[in-house]
Amino acid sequence: MIDLPGELFQPYISLKDVWVVMIIFVATLVRSSLGFGDALLAMPLLGMLVGFPMATPLMGMVAPTISSLILLSDWRKVEWQINRHLILATILGIPFGLLLLRYAPGMWVKGILGVLLIGFGLFRLMKPNTPELKQRRFAYAFGVLAGILGAAYNTNGPPVVVYGSLRRWSPERFRATLQGYFFPTGMFILLGQAAAGLWSAHVLRLYFYSLPFVLVAIWVGGRLNRRISFVNFERVVFIALVVFGAMLLF
Fold it and tell me: Of 40, 23, 201, which is closest to residue 114 (Cα–Cα)?
């Protein structure tokens, strides 16, 4: 049981808590600027700092908070029809992901995903004039893959990011549409973690400490997203995919 307010509201903040808040600020800035990347950036750092039992539910709270706040202002830019296909396909892919989690070596799967992200990012950086993916039916393939990876290793983002880049969405539409996908899936994760008893007073306290910095990072990231050109935005996305692929690989 959480002893409120004794445990939740403390009159001090430790140096480790400050580092946690700063990591969340930078991760939120990346997510608000590009539309993705917060968990891939924050989870390894938070895991080393406070451990994954605390880092996982903390980012589970932060991620849908970011999505909801971005959607409040940018919901008109979301490709809602495509998102419905992606979310449905993600749900269909979850059972296969659970089987993968049970029977496949995690290191091999993450390694293969890392190699694919690096390869795709480098290919698009070297050959930027690839054809646009116009058929919406491909959303199902990418959504199923996202469901498999999300259920197995909490990495549902990369397939959706790759799909968005192939659709050639503008930076603002790319950012908004990803939030329309991440918000409902993030809420399912959030509720599941709460039901599993992963929340604690310390996790909630860190979340509330982080909220003001999350708000600032979303505002700054939104301005950066609107100012960047389509060509430069694509280049940054592909570089980010290479970096995150390397993080998964190593």
Answer: 40
